Amino acid sequence: xxxxxxxxxxxxxxxxxxxxxxxxxxxxxxxxxxxxxxxxxxxxxxxxxxxxxxxxxxxxxxxxxxxxxxxxxxxxxxxxxxxxxxxxxxxxxxxxxxxxxxxxxxxxxxxxxxxxxxxxxxxxxxxxxxxxxxxxxxxxxxxxxxxxxxxxxxxxxxxxxxxxxxxxxxxxxxxxxxxxxxxxxxxxxxxxxxxxxxxxxxxxxxxxxxx
Length: 211
Prior knowledge:
The protein is an alpha+beta fold. The chain contains one helix and ten strands, in the order H-E-E-E-E-E-E-E-E-E-E. The chain starts with a helix and ends with a strand.
């Protein structure tokens, strides 16, 4: 066999081996893709949840004014302490304490409110979408009143709309308008012809730290 024919034979064999290797690799890739779950779900040897997000915590205090829709008492000062746990850029959970002191319109005596509730907050816009972040909150909790004609226990369903923003990396300011319907409540004074309810509204400015 001449040198030219030998070289041609070697090149032909090398080309066949290369083609066979390429076909085998492509077949293995197809098999691997067929064996993987569809979409973005990782295969079974990899975890579905790679890292559990840690919520950021904010502690805030607020001060404002509170009034009663049914005329149980006049407008008076109110204060608030709140802890918020951020679960995502849209959702957070809140725990609230709110208190107020109002003068009863018919008796001239104080009506002291104490309320504890928990709620879920939804950010209408993400923090990076506007100069302030609007949000709404809905919750459920306990409300009690001390004083003449008070009621020691009632169910409340607070509904809130507000805005806030960070001033520094850890300090934020905001404002809230709160509507607090009450159920199983009775703030009627003795001898009253009609029952007086404890539905209230509150407007508060608040500030605090986020960690």
